[in-house]
Amino acid sequence: MKTKIGYKQLLKEAEKNITTLEVEEALALFKEGKAKFMDLRDIREIERDGYISGSFHCPRGMLEFWVDQESPYHKPIFSEPHYFVFYCAGGWRSALATQTAQMMGLSPVAHIRGGFRAWREKECPIDGYKQK
Prior knowledge:
Oxidized Rhodanese, domain 1; 5-stranded parallel beta sheet; about 40% helix; globular
């Protein structure tokens, strides 16, 4: 059975409707303390690679449940007045998560183009990484 729409099309459609930040733009928000960075990666990725300093871990699979105030799993951080910047390893999960969060009424919200990989390549602040 051929899928009607694949991940590439989903990403392309999401990118049309969301705010995508270049690393430099995200870093400026980070330095100014004007955004809450939300890490969507799996805990194993975080333990292996570290995380953006001060970020909040929100596993991608829990996003909808944590954002929705009517959910028994709602996290209060999503009711606070933040500029939410989502990131994952490479920017795919975060693009789709940004679109979903935006559709659920979370605002303002954006994601980092290239994700944590791009952040790290630009030598931006990270915690938790222990070079082997």
